[in-house]
C-alpha cells in the first residue's frame, strides 16, 4: 500500500486521457444504418423498456431518464410500476459481453412476446446479438476477448486503468447521451422542453 | 420532426467528439492536493456512504459498486440495508449545481453527526462546497452559470448537445472511475481481485 | 444469547396473533368518508405518485404496483422514469409519525404545485396531516406517543414484538391492499385483468 | 364503474377481516423445527442475502432492513453494493409459487457455490423447495392450486379480495416481522438497539 501523499495521481490522469481518446475514436466507428434503425424504433415505439445488469443497468437508467425528459413512455425493467411488455413495444438490452444471463433470458422472453429487441453490446459474436432485431456495437473491452482503442494502444496495464466493464459502461453512457442529442435535433425540441419534465420531487 | 432516415447523425457524432475533448481537458484541471485528500479519506474510512439525486445518484452507485469490488465497506444512501452514519465515516455528496436540496440537507446531517463530507460538484460557489471538508471540482456545465470546455468552444447549441446535467454526469463518472484506477495502483491490487468480489447473483 | 434450539418461538407466535387482532380491530376504525374521498381522488387522477421513506416506502411501492396492475398511471417518487408532478395529479405520502422530513418536504412541494396530497399516517397531530387534502389514519404505534390495539392490550413488552414502525407498516400494507379490493369491486374488473398487466420480464 | 360515493366500502372491510383471520390461523401452522433451523442459520451466517421478485422482493427488503437494525451483515440481491455470495453465507429466497424463474435460477447458483439456501414459499411441491436446505411454508394462496384459510372459507370471490400473490405477500411480511420479534428475544436486545442502527440519512 502506497501512502496517498506520495502518489502523483498519474494513473488517475492517464485513465481519463485514455477514455477521452477511446471515445474520440468511437465516434467514427458506428454503423450509421444501425443507429438510424434504432432511432426509428425508439420514435415509433408504443413503450420503451430498458434493461441491464450491474453498472450496465445504471447506464440504462440514465438513458431511460432522458427518454422520459423527451416525453417518451419509457420503463426500466425491474422497477416498481413497469408493466407487461407487448408486441408494439421496444426492449433495449445492454450487456458488454452480450452473454449476461438475466439479460439474455429476458431478451428471449421479449422476442417470444413479439416485441422489438435492440442490443447495445461490445461483442458481435454473442447470444444477445443473435436474437436482436437491431445491434449497436460499442468498442469497449470485453472480458476475455478484447477490441477497441485501449487494447490496441496499451501494453498490459490497461486492465487496471479500466477494470472489468469500465470502458464499455462509460462508452455506452456517452453513446446513449449522444442518441439523446440526435433525438433532440430530430424532434426539434430544446433543453427547456426536457427541463419541464424533470422531476420536481427530488 | 425529421424522418430518422434523413439524418446523418451529425449531432450524435459531434456530441461524442465534444465530450471526448471536454474529458481530455478535464484531466489537467484537477487540484491534485484535493484528490490526494479524497484518496486518504477513502482509504481511512470506517464506512463510505455515497449520495446523489437523479442521474448523479446513478453515477454515485457506479462508484460505490467499484469501491465494493475493491473491498471497501460502502453504502448507497437510500438503499435497503444502509446503516446509520457515524463520526468515523465518510459521506460523498454528488451534485452538479451544489444546491440539490436533498443532498445539501443530508450533507448538513452528516456534518452534525461529525462525519467527513466530500463534495463532487461543478459549482465552487455552492452550499455543498461551504459545508464540505474536501471538494473536487468537475468542469461540467452548471445550469445558469457555465464553465468548462463546451461553453468556451460552442456557440449556443451546446445546450442541446449535452442537455441539463449531461456534461457533469459523464465527467464525474469518468473522474470516479479514474479514482478507482488510482486506488488500484495505490493498494497494489489487480483486476482479478475486483472480479472475485463481483456479484455472483445477477 | 439464547440457543435457538431452546426457544419455543413464543414471541414469534405471539407477535402474529397480536398483529391479527390489531388488523381485525383496524377494519372498524376507518372514517369511511375519508376513504371514499381517497377512492375518488385515485379514480380521477391524471397520474398518481406514491412516496414514503424506509419500510413505509416499500409499502408504497407494493401499493403502486397493484395500481399499475389495475391500469392506473402511477409512479414511485425517486424511481428512474418518474416525471414532474402536475396540478391534475395526486400524491400519496406515507409516514407513520407524519413528520418524516423528506416526505413532509416533498408534500409541501406537491401542494405548491397545486396537486392533491393524501396522507396515510398514524399521527393525526402531524405536519403531513396539516398540509394534506385527505387523511387516512392507520391505528399503528407511533414512536413516542402511542395509540391502537397493541398499546391498550400489552404491558410494556409490545415494543419488542412490533419494534419501531412495524405495526404501522404492516397495517398500512393491509389497508392499501384492501383499497385494491375495493377498487376491483368499484371498477368491475377481475383478477385476470390484473394478471394481464403483471410484468412479463421478471 | 360504481361512483365511489355510492360504495359502503364493504370489500375493504371484508378483505381486512379475512386477512386478520388468515394470519391468526397461520400462527398455529408453522413447523417449529424448520423455524428454529432458520433462526440458527441466520444467527450463524457470515452474511445474509435476501431475494424475491416483485412484491415478494419488497417483503424481502423489509426483512433485510430489520436484520440490519439488529446488526446482521445483510444484503439485498440486486442492490448496488451487494458482494459475491460465499460458502459461509445464507441466501433467503422468497417466492409464493416457488417457481419464479429468476429466484429459482439464483437459488441454483447459491447452491452451486455451496451456501445455505432457505425457501419461504406457499408451495411445498415446488422447485425452490427441492433445492433448499430449509423451508418455511406460508399458508398463502398459490395461483392455481389453493390452500389456507381464505380458500376454505370463501366461495369464489376471494380472488378479488386478495388478488394474485396478495395473501402470500402480507403473510410472509408478518412472518418475517415475527422472526424479528423472536430474534430480539433470543439475542436479548431491545428496540433502542434497533433504533441506534436506523438510517440517519432519510
Automatic annotation (TrEMBL), chains A, B, C, D:
The keyword Nucleotide-binding does not apply. Pfam families: SIS. InterPro entries: PHI/rmpB, SIS_dom, SIS_dom_sf. Residues 38-189 form the SIS domain. Keywords: Isomerase. One of its GO terms (biological process) is carbohydrate derivative metabolic process. It comes from the Archaea. GO terms for molecular function: carbohydrate derivative binding; isomerase activity. Belongs to the SIS family. PHI subfamily. This is 6-phospho-3-hexuloisomerase. It comes from Methanosalsum natronophilum. The gene is hxlB.
Amino acid at each position: 500500500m502506497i501512502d496517498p501523499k506520495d502518489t502523483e495521481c498519474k494513473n488517475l490522469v492517464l485513465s481519463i486521457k485514455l477514455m477521452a481518446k477511446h471515445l474520440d475514436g468511437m465516434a467514427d466507428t458506428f454503423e450509421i444504418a444501425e443507429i438510424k434503425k434504432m432511432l426509428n424504433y425508439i420514435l415509433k415505439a408504443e413503450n420503451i423498456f430498458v434493461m441491464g445488469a450491474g453498472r450496465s443497468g445504471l447506464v440504462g437508467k440514465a438513458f431511460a431518464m432522458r427518454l422520459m425528459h423527451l416525453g417518451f413512455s419509457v420503463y426500466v425493467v425491474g422497477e416498481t410500476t413497469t408493466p407487461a411488455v407487448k408486441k408494439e413495444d421496444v426492449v433495449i438490452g445492454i450487456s458488454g459481453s452480450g452473454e449476461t444471463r438475466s439479460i439474455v433470458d429476458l431478451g428471449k422472453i421479449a422476442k417470444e412476446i413479439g416485441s422489438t429487441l435492440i442490443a447495445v453490446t461490445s461483442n458481435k459474436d454473442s447470444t444477445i446479438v443473435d436474437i436482436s432485431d437491431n445491434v449497436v456495437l460499442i468498442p469497449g473491452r470485453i472480458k476475455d476477448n478484447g477490441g477497441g482503442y485501449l487494447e490496441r494502444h496499451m501494453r498490459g496495464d490497461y486492465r487496471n486503468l479500466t477494470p472489468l466493464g469500465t470502458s464499455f459502461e462509460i462508452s455506452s453512457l456517452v453513446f446513449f447521451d449522444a442518441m439523446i442529442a440526435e433525438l433532440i435535433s430530430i424532434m426539434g425540441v430544446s433543453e427547456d422542453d426536457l427541463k419541464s419534465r424533470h422531476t420536481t420531487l427530488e
